[in-house]
Amino acid sequence: MIEEPLWVLSCPLCEILKNKATNIKLYWPENPEDICKTEFIIISYPDEKFPLVLFRDHVDSVLEENWGNILYRCRKIFGESIVLKYGNKIAKDHFYCYIKI
Q: What is the mean pLDDT of residues 85-101?
């Protein structure tokens, strides 16, 4: 079972996760109520050109096992030819990457 995440005030990515922001398109999980139950979400963020994968915990890298889950889910949603590019300009303490389609 995945524990409840630690929310950090004024962290833009925590705000997305915590508030289930209405100005984003949620690709994964399919149900917004499941955001806190999954290790990562896949969204379109209004200020970004490409969809992104956002890891819910405050870590700046992910384990190989997590990376495999992320890649699998992105390919299932966007196709096999996607490219994942590491990002660090929105928040430095959440792992996230862009999905270039």
A: 80
* Separation in Å, CA 43 to CA 50, 54, 64: 9, 8, 21
Peptide bond into 29 cis (omega under 30): yes
Tell me the three state secondary structure of residue 91: coil
Alpha carbon distance 76, 39 (integer Å): 17
- Phi/psi of residue 35, nearest 5 degrees: -55, -45
pTM of the complete model beyond 0.85: no
- Residue 3 pLDDT level (bands cut at 50, 70, 90): low
